[in-house]
Structure formats: structure tokens, C-alpha cells
Design a protein that fits this description.
Blueprint: H1 4-21, H2 25-30, H3 34-49, H4 56-84, H5 90-100, H6 104-130, H7 143-167
Helix pairs in contact: 1-5, 3-4, 6-7
Length: 168
């Protein structure tokens, strides 16, 4: 049985690996990112099972079925990975898998790109860079607004990209 210090060590190493390496583009150009795969699966199930003309009871039943399928799939993948982690040096794989689901480096890189664009290209560059990470139209933002939008985006995405995968 593994104790809490093992899990904390794995978590610290995964956070460090993500901080140093992040999401290498050369890897994710060749392989689909697990988060993107999950999104595609959910979108496909939604298109297949959630039809506007269906009765509310059917839509609810399909939603429950989708949720059960996703939970069983995630549990099966987790069970399979836990079996793999029992091999010698399985902790290396555990660190790598955990790091894949962290996004601290990616968040940092996107906000740093906004800061660099503001410094090098001024307001228009900052607006262009911040448009890559926010959903709103940045054309009406002044420099303080661009910086605020980048910081807000970083804070909002931190919960999904770092906090939740770390503590869930």
C-alpha cells in the first residue's frame, strides 16, 4: 500500500515536469491530447443522443446513459493505468500521466505572450494576443483592460487546468 508521502512526491514531480516541459507541441501534433479526446467523445455522444425534438424524459435518460458511460470509461482507464503503475518504475509513467492533465505551463505561456505583445507591439499587439485566450472581443479594451482580461483568463482557467487536476 502506498502512503501519502508517495502521492505527494508524485504530485510534486508532475507539477515540476509540467512547469518545465509543459505541453510539447511536437508530441500533441502526433497524438491527440486526452482532454481533446474526452471533448470529442462528449461532443459525439451529444450529437448522437441529444436531439431537440426528443421528449424530455428521453433526453434525460440519454444524459444519464452518457454520464454512466463516461464514468465507466474513465474508471476503466484509471483501473488499467493503475495496473500499469505497479510495474518497476511505474512511478515514472504516473508522473508523466499526471503532468499531461496539468496546464500551469500552458497558462503561463499564454499570459506571458500577452505581456510580451503589449511590451513589443503596444495596445494592438496586446489585443491580438489576448484574443487568443478570452472569449470576448478585445477591441474596446484599453491597455489596463487587456492586462486585466489576461489575468482574469489565467485565474479562471487555473481552477480547471491546475487546481482541479491536482486535488481531484
Amino acid at each position: 500500500m502506498l502512503d501519502i508521502s508517495h502521492h505527494l512526491w508524485i504530485l510534486a514531480a508532475a507539477l515540476l515536469l509540467d512547469a518545465v516541459v509543459g505541453d510539447p507541441p511536437w508530441l500533441w501534433r502526433r497524438l491527440p491530447h486526452p482532454v481533446a479526446l474526452a471533448g470529442r467523445l462528449i461532443g459525439g455522444l451529444d450529437r448522437r443522443l441529444n436531439h431537440e425534438g426528443d421528449a424530455p424524459a428521453r433526453r434525460r435518460a440519454m444524459g444519464v446513459a452518457t454520464t454512466l458511460l463516461l464514468v465507466l470509461l474513465a474508471g476503466g482507464i484509471g483501473w488499467g493505468l493503475s495496473a500499469l503503475l505497479r510495474v518497476p518504475f511505474g512511478w515514472v509513467l504516473e508522473i508523466m500521466v499526471a503532468a499531461v492533465f496539468l496546464a500551469q505551463r500552458s497558462l503561463h505561456d499564454h499570459v506571458a505572450a500577452v505581456a510580451a505583445a503589449c511590451e513589443l507591439e503596444g495596445l494592438e499587439g496586446g489585443r491580438r494576443a489576448v484574443s487568443m485566450i478570452v472569449g470576448r472581443d478585445p477591441q474596446s479594451l484599453d491597455m489596463a483592460g487587456v492586462c486585466r482580461a489576461a489575468i482574469e483568463s489565467d485565474a479562471e482557467n487555473y481552477s480547471d487546468g491546475v487546481f482541479a487536476p491536482t486535488f481531484w
